[in-house]
Specification:
The protein has 277 residues and is α/β, with parallel strands linked by helices. The chain contains seven helices and eight strands. Bound molecules: manganese (II) ion (2 copies).
Length: 277
């Protein structure tokens, strides 16, 4: 399913607009996350569940929920710039963009577009990894580096990271330098609240979840959040969510399509949250 350019003109204000970004060239350990978007859609529409979020919003009949399809990168010489430009176009239409990755390297491109439109907004980042490397294996666009770029470029008003369980000295220094608020798994407790003042962007790396719940990720990191933990935190957010991404789902590592279904569930909850301020 590729992007239908004509549908760009029909986007309504505040419509939740889903785009797939099947791009994983900046992954380090293994590729495969580019295959994510079609598998998440397949799970969403497979008929085993309805299209309602847990608060009863039916995305199946919701006119402010649209899936534009997947971007294409075959001819693109600057994929990250192309992502920024396309998201920028959607934001001009006052859409709220829900991005399906792809690996985490795409998030700075998305946030550059958000920054152009809104200035600095709050960012809530769920991940096993802080993704704060200055550079990784010689690549500053690596999926290990996105939040270093985001903080250097001052794209975020506040960055709160939740689910972290792989902090190392280099990234700890980076976190301190940039003033990142890190809630690591050692100190995380159910019911913790993150009080944001003002609009929010949510970046959700699927490996924030424990591999028991989401085995379909490139970097298995035990000791993570349950699906319920994550849903409860998303549902508790009480500020407008202007955009979100779900990244790092790798179908090549999935087991019986379970992770695809978890991603589809999170997509429904995020979409519902984005619809209701
Ligand atoms: Mn990540
Ligand atoms: Mn991660």
């Amino acid at each position: 399913m590729t992007i239908d350019a004509q549908r760009l003109d029909t986007i309504e204000k505040n419509a939740i607009t889903v785009i797939g970004v099947p791009y994983d060239e900046n992954s380090t350990y293994m590729q495969g996350a580019a295959g994510g978007p079609p598998k998440i859609r397949e799970a969403l529409h497979c008929g085993s569940a309805n299209l309602c979020s847990e608060d009863g919003v039916d995305l199946g009949v919701q006119t402010l929920f649209n899936d534009l399809g997947d971007m294409e990168f075959a001819q693109s010489s600057a994929p990250l710039d192309a992502i920024q430009q396309f998201v920028g176009k959607l934001l001009e239409k006052e859409a709220r963009v829900l991005v399906l990755g792809g690996d985490h390297a795409i998030t700075p491109a998305v946030l550059r577009a958000y920054h152009e439109k809104f200035g600095r907004i709050n960012v809530l980042h769920f991940d096993a990894h802080p993704d704060l490397y200055e550079s990784f294996e010689g690549n500053r666009d690596s999926h290990a580096c996105p939040f270093a770029r985001i903080m250097e470029e001052k794209l975020a008003k506040r960055l709160v990271q939740v689910g972290i369980r792989t902090m190392n000295p280099h990234q700890q220094n980076q976190a301190e330098k940039f003033g990142v608020e890190v809630v690591d798994m050692q100190s995380w407790r159910p019911g913790m609240r993150f009080d944001f003042s003002g609009p929010l962007y949510i970046s959700l790396d699927m490996d924030a979840l424990d591999p028991a719940f989401a085995p379909g990720v490139s970097h298995h990191e035990p000791g993570g959040l349950s699906t319920r933990d994550l849903l409860t935190m998303i549902q508790a957010i009480d500020v407008p969510v202007l955009g979100a991404d779900i990244v790092e789902f790798n179908p090549l590592r999935d087991v019986s399509g379970m992770t695809a279904m978890v991603a589809a569930k999170l997509m429904k909850e995020l979409a519902s949250k984005m619809l209701n301020d």
